Amino acid sequence: MRLHNKVTLITGAASGMGRATADTFAREGARVVVADINDGDGTTAVKEIQAAGGQAHYVHLDVTDETSWTTAIDEVLGLFGRLDVLVNNAGISGTFDPDLTSTAFYDQLMLINAKGVFLGIKHAAAAMARTGGGSIVNLSSISASIGQPGVHMGYGASKAAIKSMTKTASVHHADQGIRVNAVAPGMLPPMRTSRGSADPVWRAKQIDAVPMKRAGDVQEVADVVLFLASDESSYVTGIEILVDGGLTAV
Ligand SMILES: NC(=O)c1ccc[n+]([C@@H]2O[C@H](COP(=O)([O-])OP(=O)(O)OC[C@H]3O[C@@H](n4cnc5c(N)ncnc54)[C@H](O)[C@@H]3O)[C@@H](O)[C@H]2O)c1
pLDDT tens across 22-78, in order? Predict the structure, then answer.
């Protein structure tokens, strides 16, 4: 098993890619902590993982709230005595608010997508340093590197912040045995909060620009997150892996 007994905390694991990552980690023997603000779907995820023979535990975690982070990590350390892997996956879509010049939406995007990751790295790295290291995987996006019609500037800015924090944190924490990497998905199933990017006409145009001529599947992202979380990537830090069917290679 590729994550045998590793203690892994995944934010936003109640749905989408976070949920697929939680299922994948559990199949690979991890002790999975499902963390989300959606307590209903989060506890359902835990029950389903346990029913499939996996090890899972739910914590309520609002990634924007520093006290919520310290409480969640204290709970994990109290239960398991260590934290080996953090996946900073929680986020909101850049096409949630149709007003692409909304200042309030800019602030919300930066708060959840960027500050949430900053707080996660800060508190997880402190815990990991005490037990000899770990792996942090951040969910960025192709929007960190390219412009897309209909996507709020704040989304790209928040994801570019993640790409940058990944590099800086990888350098800061390398001597503590903590690796920090990012995964940047392209066209995936729409996020729960998507409005514009959930539109079939918008999606068809975007998918037509993908060299592989299809959207990705959540499992295809979860498998890359698994590689970066596991010891198979032991000499990999500070990078971003694009999972985009070649969209940004054109
Ligand atoms: N789906 C895509 O097309 C796509 C593409 C590129 C990158 N991404 C990124 O991948 C990640 C996962 O996306 P997804 O498609 O699975 O989205 P999703 O909407 O299905 O899941 C996001 C999860 O984050 C949780 N969440 C939201 N705010 C939170 C908060 N403050 N604290 C804790 N949890 C919170 C939600 O409850 C939800 O369970 C996001 O960071 C997203 O930006 C998605």
Answer: 999 999 999 999 999 999 999 999 999 999 999 999 999 999 999 999 999 999 999
Nearest alpha carbon to residue 25 among 41, 40, 39, 5: 5
List 138's β-bridge partners, or say none. 88, 182
Residues 6+ apart with CB under 8 A from 126: none
Q: Is 90 in the pocket of ligand 1 (CB under 6 A)?
A: yes
Domains of the chain: which residue ranges?
7-241
Would you state the pLDDT for residue 150? 96
Residue 81 amino acid letter: G
CA of 55 to the centre of ligand 1 (A): 22
CATH fold for the domain made of 7-241: Rossmann fold (3.40.50)
Residue whose C-alpha is closest to residue 74's, from 125, 127, 137, 116:
127
Question: Collapsing DSSP states into helix, strand and coil, what is residue 191?
Answer: coil
